[in-house]
């Protein structure tokens, strides 16, 4: 539907009579352009924005595009409004009112956005236009930011790559200009603060860390405020209160409503601590911020502020040893106790309020049977009714986000473990922007890659001769896909179709990868191979122009990824028992075909790996490592894909069968041939024996 540009523009202007505001400074992120105003439909705003853009009306284009983004974001937050109709109170009226208040007349129905447009927003298309409009307005800093924001989701966009290179050369563009405008302010400030602190720049880090904390509290506050409306009483947390329809139902309904408001408010803590695109909150988000602040203040020599922050940490964790030690030290340094020096007021307020709410929620849990998932690990035990403690402790253990996320292992750890000679750690998890990822090089010699490539080729050739024409890839019509299992390789070797040496090497190499993966990621718990697959993907000639698809769409290896929510369901049809994945590459003489990791939104690329002979990329198989493969647009890309499991019952049976097949006695002629073949590569193979380093 076409609305006229002037109509929508008019609605962005201040109401008649109110003074024209002085040119407002551009907010750093996607802050509200007109705070409090109900958002317009994003599709209409976007259409108008594009029209303004096409007409060269840069300022209105910027205003409309930003408003479209804001509206789309607001819409995302209120998705699922219909679920609220199940709510307890006879609230039809309230529903209309609240909806009208938040979304303007017509509510969500008016704002429904088609799938195509939703995808455009997901691909961050508006930022491409924003970038150019900002450029025309000579707002280079914002232009660079918009360009970066677009590029994060579109890393293969060549035009944007060039534009960014140009921006880099312009004066007026700083390295900090290249920021992601979709990152909420508290995350941006937090990341920057941490980075500065890591570089021992406490003075610069402090304002950012303080801002991060303030913004986090403000974010929580605005989330809490939205709990009053009916929108939030939805989703799995909804707890129907019994007996609504009966006499006395009103009392229960009101209690139920209040409980839901409290549940919603408590959830705001977790929401604020969750990075966009992630499925679980950063554990202990507020206490960790306070710890960083206390560290930074101490580094900068602000003793009393360091003390205020450490006292605030102690409000969360009164028995925290590090905090107690630091406190003692500051007290000694400061001399006699200073009056008025206590924990931060904002944190005191937060904790008092939070505890008050928890008390009520636990009461309801005990006496009304409602549920409450405490978002915090710091709740004092005294607050939890005794009858509930045992059960909660169990639940707690099942909740992954209450434990610290796996820390990247320091290099020293790696040096201590069994190493293969010649293998190097090229990139660790930190360098790959993840928690459990690594790139190792030197696992295969060029000769070994050659043997395995030949094996793949011979096996495919045999297939072709028997009428099997290398099938099209299950992932894309533009590639051929050949897969060879270890058992098939052993059988083909037995029948003389492929060389025995290749089949044997396949087994040996898979064991090599298993040893390294176990040593690196799971030194305390044995890993077993659950599946080994030699896979080649070949570009089909003449079908590569304008190709938009991937060689392997973004997925996680042991769960079903839902990019809309960032959740990953560890249930069939996923191979749920896979714990670690490894891809060992055999060649690099092809075009495209890089492996890439993304955020759980399946859009934002966080790291890339270029295949080459002997390079292993290994990573945990869960939702923390969504990955895909760019289109292979020329040539043939071969790799050994291996999945490891902690579950012995899922150990690859075929591996043992293949091993047996290859060991069975053969006639002497074969044996001789075998010996000759293996002689020339035996020196290389033996150099790969396991050695203990250090
Ligand atoms: O070949 C690659 O680089 C990745 C393949 C992959 O992700 C898979 O097979 O699950
Ligand atoms: Fe995969």
TrEMBL record:
<keyword id="KW-0560">Oxidoreductase</keyword>
<feature type="region of interest" description="Disordered">
    <location>
        <begin position="1"/>
        <end position="36"/>
    </location>
</feature>
<dbReference type="GO" id="GO:0032964">
    <property type="term" value="P:collagen biosynthetic process"/>
</dbReference>
<dbReference type="GO" id="GO:0005506">
    <property type="term" value="F:iron ion binding"/>
</dbReference>
<keyword id="KW-0325">Glycoprotein</keyword>
<dbReference type="InterPro" id="IPR005123">
    <property type="entry name" value="Oxoglu/Fe-dep_dioxygenase_dom"/>
</dbReference>
<feature type="domain" description="Fe2OG dioxygenase">
    <location>
        <begin position="532"/>
        <end position="646"/>
    </location>
</feature>
<keyword id="KW-0408">Iron</keyword>
<dbReference type="GO" id="GO:0008285">
    <property type="term" value="P:negative regulation of cell population proliferation"/>
</dbReference>
<keyword id="KW-0677">Repeat</keyword>
<dbReference type="GO" id="GO:0005783">
    <property type="term" value="C:endoplasmic reticulum"/>
</dbReference>
<dbReference type="GO" id="GO:0019797">
    <property type="term" value="F:procollagen-proline 3-dioxygenase activity"/>
</dbReference>
<keyword id="KW-0479">Metal-binding</keyword>
<keyword id="KW-0256">Endoplasmic reticulum</keyword>
<feature type="compositionally biased region" description="Pro residues">
    <location>
        <begin position="13"/>
        <end position="28"/>
    </location>
</feature>
<dbReference type="GO" id="GO:0031418">
    <property type="term" value="F:L-ascorbic acid binding"/>
</dbReference>
<feature type="region of interest" description="Disordered">
    <location>
        <begin position="658"/>
        <end position="694"/>
    </location>
</feature>
<dbReference type="Pfam" id="PF23557">
    <property type="entry name" value="TPR_leprecan"/>
</dbReference>
<feature type="region of interest" description="Disordered">
    <location>
        <begin position="226"/>
        <end position="246"/>
    </location>
</feature>
<dbReference type="GO" id="GO:1902494">
    <property type="term" value="C:catalytic complex"/>
</dbReference>
<dbReference type="InterPro" id="IPR044862">
    <property type="entry name" value="Pro_4_hyd_alph_FE2OG_OXY"/>
</dbReference>
<dbReference type="InterPro" id="IPR056585">
    <property type="entry name" value="Leprecan_dom"/>
</dbReference>
<dbReference type="InterPro" id="IPR011990">
    <property type="entry name" value="TPR-like_helical_dom_sf"/>
</dbReference>
<keyword id="KW-0847">Vitamin C</keyword>
<dbReference type="Pfam" id="PF13640">
    <property type="entry name" value="2OG-FeII_Oxy_3"/>
</dbReference>
<feature type="compositionally biased region" description="Acidic residues">
    <location>
        <begin position="229"/>
        <end position="242"/>
    </location>
</feature>
<feature type="compositionally biased region" description="Low complexity">
    <location>
        <begin position="1"/>
        <end position="12"/>
    </location>
</feature>
<dbReference type="InterPro" id="IPR039575">
    <property type="entry name" value="P3H"/>
</dbReference>
<protein>
    <recommendedName>
        <fullName>procollagen-proline 3-dioxygenase</fullName>
        <ecNumber>1.14.11.7</ecNumber>
    </recommendedName>
</protein>
<keyword id="KW-0802">TPR repeat</keyword>
<dbReference type="InterPro" id="IPR006620">
    <property type="entry name" value="Pro_4_hyd_alph"/>
</dbReference>
<comment type="similarity">
    <text>Belongs to the leprecan family.</text>
</comment>
<keyword id="KW-0223">Dioxygenase</keyword>
<keyword id="KW-0732">Signal</keyword>
